[in-house]
Amino acid sequence: MSPRLNTKENIMENEDHRSLGRRLRLFDTVPVIGAGLPIWLPDGAVIRGELERMAAEIAERTGCVRVHTPVLAKRALFEQSGHWDKFAEDMFPAMKVGEDELVLRPANCPSHVQVYAAEAHSWRDLPVRLIESASMFRSELSGVLGGLSRVRQISLDDAHVFCMPVQVVDEVVLALDAIADAYAVLGIDVDHYRLSGRGQAGAGSDEDWDASEADLRAALDRRGIPYVHVPGEGAFYGPKIDVQVRDAAGREETLSTVQVDRVLPERFGLVYVGSDGAKHRPVMVHRGLLSSMERLVALLIERYQGRFPTWLSPVQVALVPMDPRRHADAAELVQARMSAAGIRVRVLDRGSLGSRIARAHALQAPYIAVLGDREAADGTLTVDARAVPVHDLIAAIRDEIDSRAQRPVILGEGVSGAA
């Protein structure tokens, strides 16, 4: 049976991502490390790695270049950006190191500003698109922490674009298209788009906020996307588009964001040389394609209820030899061929046949392949009561992985995922 997303009709049968993720051994939280600091177990790390790979491909396709910046910075950096005044209560206390006060970053945009500022730019260089897969830190209270959805260390593939004012709308459209592409692959439905406007704590001039909001409206209109305008929900440095989704329990949450910022470039004195030879101020577009890995994986665990599409599944083929001793060599050969093709296969060769079949189902492997005397002799595997040549099965699964298909590939009379 193919992986299926949860709908409002089956919400009542859902298992929470915390219990499901621990039962499937995707992640865990241990007291000696602390609340809100989950550890990613090997199978969970596979899912995270595949999502990071997809995000990296989209980033490269949309012109981003990868950078790396420290998780620590001087308190002065965040004072200049405004994060210290705005978010000090949500940040970890400053650490005194010699004469410096160092802070764990709550966001990486101030560091990316420094990457841009590290060299001179002309109008011909823009837009400059920077992306980093980075850890950020929030000093959340213990009472609000839970599973992967509320944590103290978040992992974010976050992009920042530095561009001329006339390029802003194009950059927002590019970000919206990238989000739509990612959601199509993941099977995530958008509930609605929200244009979040200025609140009382917003920094910068009304003129800058109005210009930034006009840019966001123009991008949404260009793509024909309806939206809800929500005053007061913007970031402190500019308005943003929030992409609202529903979790498996029907709760609304923000997953992706696109923000237009004229404040940080002003505070840090960023410039580029225009075609007129004069210095001009760039605009900064903050692009959060897939939210944090923690929040995204929590959402997907519940949406798929552990039955992930093949490309995301930690175990893509559960290989069950009928007789672990007699079929050991044949199983090792099949495992080697699949592994060489980049297919994640796990041989289940301990315990009774019934217990191994049950374990294969518990793994939620999309494909359960049985190997007996006939299969070993014929070079086949039995999948869903059908004998399939090993090379055909490998080719079909490889095509499915490469296309990031939502459903198992149908091959000949039918190769489908295990029930």
Description of the structure:
By secondary structure, the chain is an alpha+beta fold. The protein is built from 13 helices and 20 strands. The chain has helices at residues 17-23, 42-61, 75-81, 83-87, 109-117, 168-186, 206-222, 263-267, 293-304, 328-340, 353-362, 373-378, 390-403, and strands at residues 27-28, 39-40, 65-66, 72-74, 95-97, 100-104, 128-137, 153-163, 192-196, 227-230, 240-246, 252-261, 272-273, 279-280, 283-292, 317-321, 345-347, 367-371, 380-383, 386-389. The strands form five sheets. The protein has an eight-stranded mixed beta sheet. α1 crosses α9 (293-304) and α6 crosses α7 (206-222). The longest helix is centred in the first third of the chain and has 20 residues, at 42-61.
Evaluate the radius of gyration: 25 Å
Overall pLDDT metric? 89
Uncertain regions: pLDDT < 50 for 5+ in a row? 1-12, 410-419
- Which overall shape is indicated by the principal axes computed on the Cα atoms? elongated
DSSP strand tally: 20
Q: Main β-sheet, in a few words?
A: 8 strands, mixed
Q: What order do the strands of the largest sheet run in, or round the barrel if closed?
A: 3-7-8-15-12-11-9-10
Helix-and-strand structural type: alpha+beta
Strand content range:
15-25%
Note the topology:
Blueprint (H helix, E strand, L loop, with lengths): L16 H7 L3 E2 L10 E2 L1 H20 L3 E2 L5 E3 H7 L1 H5 L7 E3 L2 E5 L4 H9 L10 E10 L15 E11 L4 H19 L5 E5 L9 H17 L4 E4 L9 E7 L5 E10 L1 H5 L4 E2 L5 E2 L2 E10 H12 L12 E5 L6 H13 L4 E3 L5 H10 L4 E5 L1 H6 L1 E4 L2 E4 H14 L16
Parallel strand pairs: 3-7, 9-10, 16-17, 16-18
Antiparallel strand pairs: 1-2, 4-6, 5-6, 7-8, 8-15, 9-11, 11-12, 12-15, 13-14, 18-19, 19-20
Helix pairs in contact: 1-9, 6-7
